[in-house]
Amino acid sequence: MEGYLGEETIDISKTEYSMYSKEDWVLMWIERYSGIDGSHHKDWLIDQIARIVKGTKIILKVNSWDNGHIKHKEERFSLEDPPEEYWEWVVEMKDGEDGPDTYDYDFGIAP
Prior knowledge:
By secondary structure, the chain is α+β, with helices and mostly antiparallel strands. It has one domain (3-94). It contains 3 helices and 3 strands; from the N terminus they run E-H-H-E-E-H. A hairpin with a 4-residue loop joins strand 2 (58-66) and strand 3 (71-79).
């Protein structure tokens, strides 16, 4: 079969990423996404980092292709829905001298 073969969710605990700390994941996100232009993408990266620091779990999916000659696999990382601790932090970020929505919090746009 040629073309896109599909996507498989991988249990991170059974990979070389099982020993990654929050700091390792943050550095990986910075390495992958910090070079993308646009302040809205930078806002997204900052928000992704905040989510990781606040305990959001990482999802690993492997996508596979076969062009008839070469099989190719690509790892793709994303985040699960963030825990309550993250949402509490967002509320704190928006709180200020004029009440609970004194400041905006920009989630950004994924690249």
